[in-house]
Amino acid sequence: xxxxxxxFGVLGLVAALIAADxxxxxxLNPYQAPPLMAYGSGLAATGxxxxxxxxxxxx
Length: 59
Description:
By secondary structure, this protein is mainly alpha-helical. The protein has a domain at 1-25. Helix content is 37%, strand content 0%. It has one helix and no strands. The longest helix has 22 residues, at 3-24. It is elongated, with a radius of gyration of 22 Å.
């Protein structure tokens, strides 16, 4: 008997969080978004450790 009110309360909080996020954020611009898959496009990866330039050791 107590599971339904708690479940509805959690769903209500999740819905409120999504509504607050949508209300407070600006709409996405699809023309500035990076491609989902850019295999062979020549675009460099950014924002990850694998995108860092290789450090050359001076001997």
